[in-house]
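Try this one yourself first.
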Protein backbone atom coordinates (compact mmCIF):
# COMPACT_ATOMS: atom_id res chain seq x y z
CA UNK A 1 0.00 0.00 0.00
CA UNK A 2 1.38 3.40 -0.97
CA UNK A 3 1.22 5.98 1.81
CA UNK A 4 -0.04 9.34 0.59
CA UNK A 5 1.61 12.34 2.25
CA UNK A 6 -0.66 15.39 2.52
CA UNK A 7 0.90 18.87 2.64
CA UNK A 8 1.21 20.88 5.86
CA UNK A 9 -0.29 24.33 5.70
CA UNK A 10 0.87 25.78 9.01
CA UNK A 11 3.81 23.83 10.42
CA UNK A 12 4.57 24.43 14.10
CA UNK A 13 8.05 24.39 15.62
CA UNK A 14 9.03 21.98 18.40
CA UNK A 15 9.12 23.42 21.94
CA UNK A 16 12.57 24.99 22.39
CA UNK A 17 12.71 24.61 26.18
CA UNK A 18 12.52 20.84 26.43
CA UNK A 19 12.25 20.92 30.22
CA UNK A 20 8.77 22.46 29.75
CA UNK A 21 7.37 19.47 27.87
CA UNK A 22 4.41 17.91 29.68
CA UNK A 23 3.62 14.24 29.06
CA UNK A 24 1.07 13.82 26.27
CA UNK A 25 0.10 17.50 25.97
CA UNK A 26 1.78 18.52 22.75
CA UNK A 27 1.91 16.69 19.47
CA UNK A 28 3.96 16.88 16.30
CA UNK A 29 2.79 18.36 12.99
CA UNK A 30 1.72 15.13 11.36
CA UNK A 31 -0.09 11.87 12.10
CA UNK A 32 -0.54 8.58 10.26
CA UNK A 33 -4.09 7.41 9.50
CA UNK A 34 -5.50 4.21 7.95
CA UNK A 35 -9.13 3.21 7.40
CA UNK A 36 -10.81 -0.19 7.52
CA UNK A 37 -14.11 -1.25 6.00
CA UNK A 38 -15.41 -4.82 6.32
CA UNK A 39 -15.29 -6.39 2.85
CA UNK A 40 -12.60 -4.00 1.67
CA UNK A 41 -9.97 -4.38 4.38
CA UNK A 42 -7.44 -1.67 5.29
CA UNK A 43 -7.22 1.24 2.87
CA UNK A 44 -6.25 4.89 2.35
CA UNK A 45 -3.00 5.08 4.33
CA UNK A 46 -2.05 8.70 4.83
CA UNK A 47 0.38 10.94 6.60
CA UNK A 48 -1.62 14.09 7.18
CA UNK A 49 -1.56 17.23 9.32
CA UNK A 50 -2.23 16.48 13.01
CA UNK A 51 -5.75 17.59 13.90
CA UNK A 52 -9.25 16.65 15.04
CA UNK A 53 -11.21 13.87 13.35
CA UNK A 54 -14.73 14.21 12.14
CA UNK A 55 -16.64 11.39 13.86
CA UNK A 56 -20.32 10.46 13.69
CA UNK A 57 -21.96 10.87 17.16
CA UNK A 58 -23.14 7.26 16.82
CA UNK A 59 -19.60 5.93 16.22
CA UNK A 60 -19.38 2.65 18.14
CA UNK A 61 -16.25 3.64 20.06
CA UNK A 62 -18.13 6.48 21.76
CA UNK A 63 -20.81 4.14 23.11
CA UNK A 64 -19.29 0.72 23.69
CA UNK A 65 -15.57 1.52 23.97
CA UNK A 66 -14.24 -0.63 21.17
CA UNK A 67 -10.77 0.90 21.31
CA UNK A 68 -7.16 -0.23 21.72
CA UNK A 69 -3.83 1.57 21.93
CA UNK A 70 -0.09 1.14 22.36
CA UNK A 71 2.72 3.20 23.84
CA UNK A 72 6.37 3.17 22.81
CA UNK A 73 9.20 5.64 22.47
CA UNK A 74 11.83 6.90 20.04
CA UNK A 75 15.13 8.03 21.58
CA UNK A 76 17.66 10.48 20.18
CA UNK A 77 21.21 9.25 20.73
CA UNK A 78 24.39 11.25 21.17
CA UNK A 79 25.48 10.40 17.60
CA UNK A 80 22.23 11.95 16.32
CA UNK A 81 20.64 8.63 15.32
CA UNK A 82 17.11 7.77 16.43
CA UNK A 83 16.34 4.44 18.10
CA UNK A 84 13.10 2.55 18.65
CA UNK A 85 12.88 0.02 21.49
CA UNK A 86 11.25 -3.34 20.56
CA UNK A 87 8.62 -1.65 18.33
CA UNK A 88 7.51 -4.91 16.74
CA UNK A 89 6.62 -6.24 20.17
CA UNK A 90 4.25 -3.30 20.58
CA UNK A 91 2.52 -3.98 17.26
CA UNK A 92 2.33 -7.70 18.05
CA UNK A 93 0.64 -6.83 21.36
CA UNK A 94 -1.63 -4.38 19.50
CA UNK A 95 -2.80 -7.31 17.36
CA UNK A 96 -3.46 -9.42 20.46
CA UNK A 97 -5.49 -6.57 21.96
CA UNK A 98 -7.32 -6.26 18.63
CA UNK A 99 -8.24 -9.93 18.67
CA UNK A 100 -9.62 -9.70 22.22
CA UNK A 101 -11.69 -6.64 21.28
CA UNK A 102 -12.97 -8.16 17.98
CA UNK A 103 -11.05 -5.63 15.92
CA UNK A 104 -9.15 -6.32 12.66
CA UNK A 105 -5.48 -7.36 12.60
CA UNK A 106 -2.77 -5.14 11.16
CA UNK A 107 0.27 -6.21 9.20
CA UNK A 108 3.25 -5.57 11.48
CA UNK A 109 5.66 -4.89 8.60
CA UNK A 110 3.26 -2.32 7.20
CA UNK A 111 2.91 -0.67 10.64
CA UNK A 112 6.71 -0.44 10.85
CA UNK A 113 6.92 1.09 7.37
CA UNK A 114 4.24 3.64 8.26
CA UNK A 115 5.86 4.49 11.60
CA UNK A 116 9.30 4.88 10.01
CA UNK A 117 7.95 7.13 7.27
CA UNK A 118 6.10 9.28 9.83
CA UNK A 119 9.17 9.51 12.07
CA UNK A 120 11.40 10.37 9.11
CA UNK A 121 9.16 13.39 8.39
CA UNK A 122 8.87 14.36 12.07
CA UNK A 123 12.38 13.61 13.30
CA UNK A 124 13.14 17.18 14.35
CA UNK A 125 10.47 16.57 17.04
CA UNK A 126 12.53 13.90 18.81
CA UNK A 127 13.90 16.03 21.65
CA UNK A 128 17.64 16.32 22.33
CA UNK A 129 18.07 16.78 26.10
CA UNK A 130 19.11 14.01 28.45
CA UNK A 131 16.29 11.61 29.28
CA UNK A 132 13.78 13.04 26.79
CA UNK A 133 12.05 11.03 24.08
CA UNK A 134 9.27 11.04 21.52
CA UNK A 135 6.27 9.08 22.78
CA UNK A 136 4.44 7.13 20.06
CA UNK A 137 0.76 6.32 20.45
CA UNK A 138 -0.76 3.89 17.91
CA UNK A 139 -4.54 3.71 18.40
CA UNK A 140 -7.52 1.98 16.80
CA UNK A 141 -11.16 3.05 17.21
CA UNK A 142 -14.47 1.68 15.94
CA UNK A 143 -16.00 4.36 13.73
CA UNK A 144 -19.09 2.67 12.31
CA UNK A 145 -22.15 4.79 13.17
CA UNK A 146 -24.69 2.37 14.65
CA UNK A 147 -26.11 1.93 18.14
CA UNK A 148 -26.34 -1.86 18.09
CA UNK A 149 -23.83 -3.67 20.33
CA UNK A 150 -21.60 -5.58 17.91
CA UNK A 151 -18.08 -5.49 16.48
CA UNK A 152 -17.91 -2.52 14.13
CA UNK A 153 -17.58 -2.86 10.36
CA UNK A 154 -15.46 0.32 10.14
CA UNK A 155 -12.30 1.33 11.99
CA UNK A 156 -9.71 4.06 12.07
CA UNK A 157 -6.10 3.26 12.94
CA UNK A 158 -3.79 6.17 13.65
CA UNK A 159 -0.39 7.01 15.09
CA UNK A 160 0.28 10.28 16.90
CA UNK A 161 3.60 11.48 18.32
CA UNK A 162 4.25 13.50 21.47
CA UNK A 163 7.64 14.83 22.60
CA UNK A 164 8.13 14.12 26.31
CA UNK A 165 10.48 15.49 28.95
CA UNK A 166 12.72 13.28 31.08
CA UNK A 167 10.43 11.31 33.39
CA UNK A 168 12.74 11.81 36.35
CA UNK A 169 13.90 15.39 36.66
CA UNK A 170 15.18 15.61 40.21
CA UNK A 171 16.42 12.02 40.52
CA UNK A 172 14.45 8.77 40.65
CA UNK A 173 12.04 9.28 43.53
CA UNK A 174 10.23 6.37 45.21
CA UNK A 175 6.43 6.48 45.04
CA UNK A 176 3.81 5.98 47.74
CA UNK A 177 1.34 3.22 46.91
CA UNK A 178 -2.18 2.64 48.12
CA UNK A 179 -3.34 -0.97 47.86
CA UNK A 180 -6.92 -1.05 46.60
CA UNK A 181 -9.09 -3.34 48.69
CA UNK A 182 -12.57 -2.28 47.59
CA UNK A 183 -11.97 -1.85 43.86
CA UNK A 184 -10.41 -4.14 41.29
CA UNK A 185 -9.03 -3.36 37.85
CA UNK A 186 -10.18 -6.53 36.10
CA UNK A 187 -11.44 -10.02 36.81
CA UNK A 188 -10.24 -13.34 35.34
CA UNK A 189 -11.71 -13.74 31.87
CA UNK A 190 -12.00 -9.96 31.51
CA UNK A 191 -9.95 -7.64 29.32
CA UNK A 192 -6.96 -7.15 31.64
CA UNK A 193 -4.46 -8.42 29.10
CA UNK A 194 -5.67 -6.03 26.38
CA UNK A 195 -4.49 -2.42 26.20
CA UNK A 196 -8.03 -1.13 25.81
CA UNK A 197 -9.46 2.17 26.99
CA UNK A 198 -12.16 0.70 29.22
CA UNK A 199 -9.59 -0.76 31.60
CA UNK A 200 -8.31 2.74 32.29
CA UNK A 201 -11.74 4.34 32.64
CA UNK A 202 -12.62 1.75 35.26
CA UNK A 203 -9.38 2.43 37.18
CA UNK A 204 -9.98 6.16 37.60
CA UNK A 205 -12.21 5.98 40.67
CA UNK A 206 -9.74 4.07 42.84
CA UNK A 207 -6.89 6.26 41.56
CA UNK A 208 -8.83 9.37 42.54
CA UNK A 209 -9.43 7.98 46.05
CA UNK A 210 -5.74 7.14 46.39
CA UNK A 211 -4.77 10.64 45.22
CA UNK A 212 -7.19 12.19 47.74
CA UNK A 213 -5.40 10.28 50.48
CA UNK A 214 -2.05 11.57 49.21
CA UNK A 215 -0.82 8.48 47.36
CA UNK A 216 0.85 8.44 43.95
CA UNK A 217 -0.43 5.13 42.59
CA UNK A 218 -2.86 2.28 43.20
CA UNK A 219 -1.69 -1.29 43.60
CA UNK A 220 -4.28 -3.67 42.18
CA UNK A 221 -4.99 -7.05 43.73
CA UNK A 222 -6.56 -9.99 41.90
CA UNK A 223 -10.26 -9.63 41.17
CA UNK A 224 -11.43 -12.77 42.99
CA UNK A 225 -9.70 -13.13 46.34
CA UNK A 226 -8.32 -9.56 46.45
CA UNK A 227 -5.19 -11.08 47.86
CA UNK A 228 -2.58 -11.49 45.12
CA UNK A 229 -0.53 -8.67 43.57
CA UNK A 230 -1.41 -7.82 39.97
CA UNK A 231 -0.16 -4.41 38.80
CA UNK A 232 0.57 -0.92 40.03
CA UNK A 233 -1.16 1.96 38.24
CA UNK A 234 -0.57 1.12 34.62
CA UNK A 235 2.72 -0.62 35.27
CA UNK A 236 3.75 -4.18 36.00
CA UNK A 237 5.38 -4.71 39.37
CA UNK A 238 8.51 -6.60 40.43
CA UNK A 239 9.80 -7.44 43.89
CA UNK A 240 13.27 -8.38 45.08
CA UNK A 241 12.37 -11.03 47.62
CA UNK A 242 15.02 -13.19 49.35
CA UNK A 243 17.43 -12.00 46.66
CA UNK A 244 15.21 -13.35 43.87
CA UNK A 245 13.16 -11.28 41.43
CA UNK A 246 9.47 -12.10 41.87
CA UNK A 247 6.66 -10.83 39.64
CA UNK A 248 3.03 -11.69 38.91
CA UNK A 249 2.57 -14.38 36.26
CA UNK A 250 0.82 -13.61 32.96
CA UNK A 251 -2.49 -15.19 33.85
CA UNK A 252 -4.57 -13.06 31.50
CA UNK A 253 -5.54 -10.32 33.93
CA UNK A 254 -2.32 -8.30 33.77
CA UNK A 255 -0.70 -6.63 30.81
CA UNK A 256 2.24 -8.42 29.18
CA UNK A 257 4.56 -5.43 29.54
CA UNK A 258 7.51 -5.04 27.22
CA UNK A 259 9.47 -3.32 29.99
CA UNK A 260 8.58 -6.24 32.30
CA UNK A 261 9.84 -8.70 29.70
CA UNK A 262 13.04 -6.68 29.18
CA UNK A 263 13.71 -6.30 32.91
CA UNK A 264 13.28 -10.05 33.46
CA UNK A 265 15.76 -10.75 30.63
CA UNK A 266 18.28 -8.32 32.15
CA UNK A 267 18.03 -9.72 35.68
CA UNK A 268 18.47 -13.24 34.29
CA UNK A 269 21.61 -11.99 32.48
CA UNK A 270 22.81 -10.62 35.83
CA UNK A 271 22.41 -14.06 37.39
CA UNK A 272 19.27 -13.49 39.44
CA UNK A 273 16.68 -16.22 39.81
CA UNK A 274 13.28 -15.08 38.48
CA UNK A 275 9.98 -16.31 39.87
CA UNK A 276 6.78 -15.54 37.99
CA UNK A 277 4.31 -16.54 40.65
CA UNK A 278 1.36 -15.37 42.68
CA UNK A 279 2.58 -13.19 45.54
CA UNK A 280 0.11 -12.22 48.23
CA UNK A 281 -0.17 -8.75 49.73
CA UNK A 282 0.50 -10.29 53.17
CA UNK A 283 3.74 -11.80 51.91
CA UNK A 284 4.77 -8.38 50.60
CA UNK A 285 3.92 -6.50 53.81
CA UNK A 286 5.49 -9.15 56.06
CA UNK A 287 8.57 -9.21 53.83
CA UNK A 288 8.94 -5.43 54.07
CA UNK A 289 8.79 -5.69 57.87
CA UNK A 290 11.10 -8.67 58.34
CA UNK A 291 13.62 -7.61 55.69
CA UNK A 292 13.04 -10.46 53.25
CA UNK A 293 11.58 -7.97 50.75
CA UNK A 294 14.42 -5.69 49.70
CA UNK A 295 13.02 -3.72 46.78
CA UNK A 296 9.84 -3.19 44.80
CA UNK A 297 9.46 -1.33 41.51
CA UNK A 298 6.92 -0.78 38.77
CA UNK A 299 7.91 -1.25 35.11
CA UNK A 300 6.47 0.52 32.07
CA UNK A 301 7.48 2.47 28.99
CA UNK A 302 6.84 5.92 30.48
CA UNK A 303 8.90 5.60 33.68
CA UNK A 304 11.07 2.57 32.72
CA UNK A 305 11.26 1.61 36.41
CA UNK A 306 9.49 3.33 39.27
CA UNK A 307 10.71 2.45 42.78
CA UNK A 308 8.11 1.83 45.48
CA UNK A 309 8.94 3.60 48.75
CA UNK A 310 5.80 2.99 50.76
CA UNK A 311 2.76 0.72 50.69
CA UNK A 312 -0.50 1.08 52.59
CA UNK A 313 -3.04 -1.74 52.80
CA UNK A 314 -6.09 -1.21 55.02
CA UNK A 315 -4.56 0.29 58.19
CA UNK A 316 -1.09 -1.10 57.70
CA UNK A 317 1.77 0.94 56.19
CA UNK A 318 5.22 -0.38 55.39
CA UNK A 319 8.27 1.42 54.04
CA UNK A 320 10.98 0.17 51.72
CA UNK A 321 14.52 1.44 51.23
CA UNK A 322 14.34 4.47 53.61
CA UNK A 323 13.18 6.85 50.93
CA UNK A 324 15.84 5.73 48.44
CA UNK A 325 15.38 3.75 45.22
CA UNK A 326 16.78 0.21 45.56
CA UNK A 327 20.16 -0.81 44.20
CA UNK A 328 18.86 -3.32 41.65
CA UNK A 329 16.05 -0.91 40.68
CA UNK A 330 18.63 1.77 39.80
CA UNK A 331 20.93 -0.72 38.09
CA UNK A 332 18.01 -1.81 35.87
CA UNK A 333 17.09 1.79 35.14
CA UNK A 334 20.68 2.51 34.07
CA UNK A 335 20.96 -0.65 31.98
CA UNK A 336 17.66 -0.29 30.18
CA UNK A 337 18.05 3.43 29.45
CA UNK A 338 21.69 2.71 28.54
CA UNK A 339 20.54 0.31 25.83
CA UNK A 340 17.82 2.72 24.66
CA UNK A 341 20.14 5.73 24.34
CA UNK A 342 23.02 3.68 22.95
CA UNK A 343 25.37 4.02 25.93
CA UNK A 344 25.37 0.23 26.39
CA UNK A 345 25.53 -2.59 23.82
CA UNK A 346 22.21 -4.01 22.64
CA UNK A 347 22.92 -7.68 23.30
CA UNK A 348 19.29 -8.80 22.87
CA UNK A 349 18.66 -6.99 19.56
CA UNK A 350 15.94 -4.82 21.06
CA UNK A 351 16.86 -1.68 19.16
CA UNK A 352 15.69 -0.73 15.66
CA UNK A 353 17.38 2.36 14.30
CA UNK A 354 15.33 4.72 12.19
C1 LIG B 1 1.09 -0.33 29.06
C2 LIG B 1 0.87 -1.01 30.37
C3 LIG B 1 1.91 -1.62 31.10
C4 LIG B 1 3.35 -1.51 30.71
O1 LIG B 1 3.66 -2.05 29.49
P1 LIG B 1 5.00 -1.63 28.74
O2 LIG B 1 4.96 -2.41 27.49
O3 LIG B 1 6.11 -2.05 29.62
O4 LIG B 1 4.95 -0.17 28.55
C5 LIG B 1 1.58 -2.32 32.25
N1 LIG B 1 0.31 -2.39 32.69
C6 LIG B 1 -0.70 -1.79 32.04
C7 LIG B 1 -2.07 -1.92 32.57
C8 LIG B 1 -0.44 -1.07 30.87
O5 LIG B 1 -1.43 -0.46 30.24
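Now uncover the answer:
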Amino acid sequence: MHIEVLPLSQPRQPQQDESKLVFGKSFTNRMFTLRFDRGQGWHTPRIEPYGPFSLDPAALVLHYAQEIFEGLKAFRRSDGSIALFRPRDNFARFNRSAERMCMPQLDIDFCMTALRQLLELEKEWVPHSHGTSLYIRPTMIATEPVLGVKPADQYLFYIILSPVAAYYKGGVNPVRIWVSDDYVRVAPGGTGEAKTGGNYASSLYASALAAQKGYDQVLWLDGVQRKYIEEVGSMNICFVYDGKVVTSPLTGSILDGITRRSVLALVRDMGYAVEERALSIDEVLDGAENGRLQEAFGTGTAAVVSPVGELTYRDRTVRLGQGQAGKLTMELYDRLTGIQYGRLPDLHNWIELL
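Discussion: Residues 219 and 232 are 4 Å apart (CA to CA). Residues 175-340 form a domain with the D-amino Acid Aminotransferase; Chain A, domain 2 fold (CATH 3.20.10.10).
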